[in-house]
Amino acid sequence: MRETNRKFLLANRPDGKPDRDTFELAEEDVPEPGPGEVLVRTRYLSVDPYMRGRMDARESYAEPWEVGEPLRAGVVGEVVDSNGADFEAGDLVTGNLQWADYATARGSQLQPVNPDLGPVSTALGVLGMPGRTAYFGTREVAQPKAGDTFVVTGAAGAVGSVAGQIAKLSGARVVGFAGSDEKVAFLEDDLGFDAGINYKETDDYRGALDEAAPGGVDSYFDNVGGPITDAVFSKLNVDARVAVCGQISLYNAEEIPTGPRKLPKLIESRARVEGFLVGDFAPRFEEATRKLAEWVESGDVQYRETVTEGLENAPDAFLGLFEGENVGKQLVAVGDSEE
Amino acid sequence: MRETNRKFLLANRPDGKPDRDTFELAEEDVPEPGPGEVLVRTRYLSVDPYMRGRMDARESYAEPWEVGEPLRAGVVGEVVDSNGADFEAGDLVTGNLQWADYATARGSQLQPVNPDLGPVSTALGVLGMPGRTAYFGTREVAQPKAGDTFVVTGAAGAVGSVAGQIAKLSGARVVGFAGSDEKVAFLEDDLGFDAGINYKETDDYRGALDEAAPGGVDSYFDNVGGPITDAVFSKLNVDARVAVCGQISLYNAEEIPTGPRKLPKLIESRARVEGFLVGDFAPRFEEATRKLAEWVESGDVQYRETVTEGLENAPDAFLGLFEGENVGKQLVAVGDSEE
């Protein structure tokens, strides 16, 4: 066990794109768990696009992080000390903790991780928040049906890759936008997508869709926004459903992003566009985890992880999300190599 | 009966705003009804914003009108000759006919007008397509509930004025945008809206809404689009519903209109935005007409009509829609004065 604890603080609020200077690595003594608390040693830390929003002062659905305060993330770790909480040393847990080697937490902030379901890292990916986001966003909001054409952006990412496979299970034709030929090959060859479009190789997204989705788009799962979404909207069929999950292409904008107005298209297509947050489905998380675990077990849902080694590299892992450097779930492995 | 029939043709496709030269008034002999047809003498002609779309070559939900061909409109008229159709001379009918003094139609193109329900002109307004649009768009799409704040644009128009009153019947706080102090007084004093905003007296729509809808917006019925809609979106509450009925502020745009991107706001608010066309509710038209007639009878729904006299003035009546010259339903009275 380390004698000091490292943790990242928000050094300042980024204007536009964050960079390494947005993060400050602080050291402190390893904290002691208070009454009813445990001490958790981080094994994996999750970096996710939504975190960008918490760096701004503006109140949105997630409370802003304060400058000088620790950043928080989904963590999988091991209980190393317990002070009367419902967990004991050796338990594997997950929860929203700090970007740190160690963190204290009340028992009520943690859920147990079942290592029988798969590698513990999947509790932050396909069997965790990103998998559940794909599950509810696809089934409850985008609602692909047999014979539909389903489009997903950020298709090789943690959420998009699972969303596309769930749509495939519904019998839809599945088209994904991703940012490299390697990712497109991953979609088509490994995940069974009907077509992948490398958006970095063209800016004629509409033309690419004319080819990949010749019958138009019935169901759209959007993680990205911006000009790709404009092209997808131009192809929406009558009664299409759009699930707005994320808009990563806009998160670093320094001014309010503008684009073509879309409401006229919605009249013509009678399309429904709906934003959602996975947290609203909390009462059904168990159902999602169970179904996802079954699909992983049966091979119907494949997943991939991109693992960055070392807590000290967590900022790079986070910044890489905006460059599309990850395939599948982006994780940071913490601590193992230092023992 | 006139000896010649006047009818308006589409003279050319407008670039941007149509004007008088968009229309050509042609004369012909009064047509004879063919087998299974009737001859209808127009009493009232409806001009509606959606007609602007049909003047463009672009296929949308309504087929484009052809240059040189007659314009079409909702008409209330009287059967003056029948050639084996299910109607006889003297019957009052409504249907989609020409902008003309007389038009032939098959019986299947017409519905009877029941003069016991109200003045026959209401078959083109509160008891016709605009009333039904308000009915389904409000109840099925925007879904205001007791305690909600409901906002409607084009609030003094044929659709908006009825939508606001239906929302009021649901127990919502109702706020309407309209284009003159006279219209705002109509909303507040005659229709029972909680607040009206004269959008021609301010461009701080957001500030006006902060006052009129201090608790945010739960349900929005949009006939107008553009910057007013941007302001309403900025105020959407969690789980808000937006019914996209029309976008009249954009119909004459010469380039693709742009504005702030709205999808990020939909994530935060989990709002649902849905376009609709009244025609999709055709199996339920009778229900709507019956309810609307009851509400008109009980005084729960008030309506107003702006009547332009003379077929020759129909283009001005249509063009006036885009200047907000009408209060309530804009009609053209045809023929009466010439007999």
Provide a descriptive summary of the structure in words.
- The structure is a homodimer of 339-residue chains.
- The first copy, chain A, has 339 residues and is of the alpha/beta class.
- Chain A folds into two domains: 4-125 and 305-338, Medium-chain alcohol dehydrogenases, catalytic domain (Quinone Oxidoreductase, Chain A, domain 1); 129-279, Rossmann fold.
- The first copy, chain A, has nine helices and 16 strands.
- Chain A has helices at residues 51-54, 129-142, 158-169, 181-190, 205-212, 227-234, 263-269, 285-298, 314-321, and strands spanning 4-10, 23-29, 37-46, 72-83, 92-98, 102-106, 110-112, 149-153, 173-178, 195-198, 217-222, 236-244, 258-260, 272-275, 305-309, 329-333.
- In chain A, the strands form three sheets. In chain A, strands 3, 4, 5, 6, 7, 15 and 16 form a seven-stranded mixed β-sheet that branches.
- In chain A, α2 crosses α3 (158-169) and α2 crosses α8.
- Chain A is globular, with a radius of gyration of 20 Å.
- The termini of chain A are close together.
- The mean pLDDT of chain A is 95.
- β14 (272-275) of chain A pairs antiparallel with β14 of chain B, so a sheet runs across the interface.
